[in-house]
Amino acid sequence: MSTRASDAYAALRIPDYRFFLAMRMSTTLAIQIMSVSVGYFMYDLTGDPLALGMIGLAEALPAIGISLWAGHIADKYNRRNIIAACITMLMLCSLALVWLVWQKDLLPKNTLVTGLYSVIFCTGIARGFFSPTVFAFLPQLVDKKVLPNAITWNSSSWEVASITGLGVGGLLYGFAGVTTTFVVMTALCLLALFLALRITKHPVPTTDHSEPALERIRAGLHFVFKNQLILSAIALDLFAVLFGGAVALLPIFAKDILQVGAEGLGVLRAAMSLGAISTAFAIAHRPLGRSAGKMMLASVAGFGLCIIVFGLSRNFWLSFACLFVAGVFDEVSVVVRSSLLQHLTPENMKGRVSSVNSMFITSSNEIGAFESGLAARLFGNVPYSVVFGGVMTLLIVGFTWWRAPKLRKLDFSQLHRAEE
């Protein structure tokens, strides 16, 4: 194996990291299967599209609301144990869903719907703790030399599990039924818990346990908002997703504009993730170095251009290509932002800083979907609303280039040499 190829797989030779990666994939599979199957089940029960939107809100609100506190906890207590507790909570939620399905003919519909929302609310709490803790735990498992490699493998495995989970969830629900789907989801959570407990316990980074929680949370916020590199990278990604996210409107494009039906919708939904996976594998073999900041800005601009062309396209394969390339550009932005957060954040503050990142990125996905729908309503024309979002993304890139010179001049090779 060549030196470059050997370097690309360096993180995968660490046992704890392999368990971590497998745990992350199992958990993501379970979460994505839950996302698809609960949505189908809720729509079967109610026939109300608004009920589907309320599922996302029921999960996003607790996840966003708990994020800052979760980051404080991740910096204070054993991170492996927190991850195990989160997975246990997800497993209990899966079991609750199994019970609700078994009782669906005995329970009133309103009680069943309330039960589903309650379970999803609890999964939002678990995910609110899980995300910053996983981010903070990763650098404890590998040496700094292979951290960039570990980040890209982590990102690519998440993308693979996300695509697979969405597909498996739909197939299981359609061919095996909702009960079997929820049982499989529970089994994946159990597997993830087993893998999490196989990871060696690592000591909590040195911290002042006497410091009040609010002071520690305030310190994490202060660190983010005073660091131009981190703040500009998070803000750039946030606003790009906020304005450039066309995913929420894909059902309209598939049905009314491209006229490819549900099958075409599935292909379009997978396009961005396929592009992101291919980029993640490429970056794992050839990590970003010089001009990383310029590459991030150029990638977000490329993402905006792809969204504009997608909005104007009336050809299915052109639309697919636009979303695929948009996924390529988006993954570059994700890797740069994740690497920046890992390299510039002190070990005893990674949970709190990651929680700020999670809060903004989670809210941008949910609010971005709302913005896309609102723009479509205001414009009265879905394609124009998508084009508007792409244009806004380009304007944001131009503003960031002007106002964030440190991000524009970012050089990862210098960052790595400084750490050594």
Which key features would you list for this structure?
2 domains, disordered N terminus, 420 residues, Growth Hormone, Chain: A, 17 helices, mainly alpha, single chain
Structure description:
By secondary structure, the protein is mainly α. The chain folds into two domains: 13-200, MFS general substrate transporter like domains (Growth Hormone, Chain: A, Up-down Bundle); 213-420, Growth Hormone, Chain: A. It contains 17 helices and no strands. It has helices at 3-8, 15-46, 49-76, 79-102, 109-141, 147-175, 178-198, 213-226, 228-244, 250-257, 261-285, 292-312, 316-344, 350-379, 382-403, 405-408, 412-419. Helix 2 (15-46) packs antiparallel against helix 3, helix 5 (109-141) packs across helix 14 (350-379) and helix 11 packs across helix 13 (316-344). The two termini are 26 Å apart. Mean pLDDT is 80; it is low at 1-6.
Give a brief description:
The chain is 84% helix and 0% strand. It is an all-alpha fold and 420 residues long.
How many DSSP-defined strands?
Answer: 0
Helix count, per DSSP? 17
Tell me the β content.
under 5%
CATH 4th-level superfamily of the largest domain = MFS general substrate transporter like domains
The assigned structural class equals mainly alpha
CATH class of the largest domain: Mainly Alpha
State the separation between the terminal residues, measured CA to CA: 26 Å
SSE layout and pairing:
Blueprint: H1 3-8, H2 15-46, H3 49-76, H4 79-102, H5 109-141, H6 147-175, H7 178-198, H8 213-226, H9 228-244, H10 250-257, H11 261-285, H12 292-312, H13 316-344, H14 350-379, H15 382-403, H16 405-408, H17 412-419
Helix pairs in contact: 2-3, 2-5, 2-6, 2-7, 3-5, 3-8, 3-14, 4-5, 4-7, 5-14, 6-7, 6-11, 6-13, 9-12, 9-13, 9-14, 9-15, 10-11, 11-13, 12-13, 12-15, 14-15
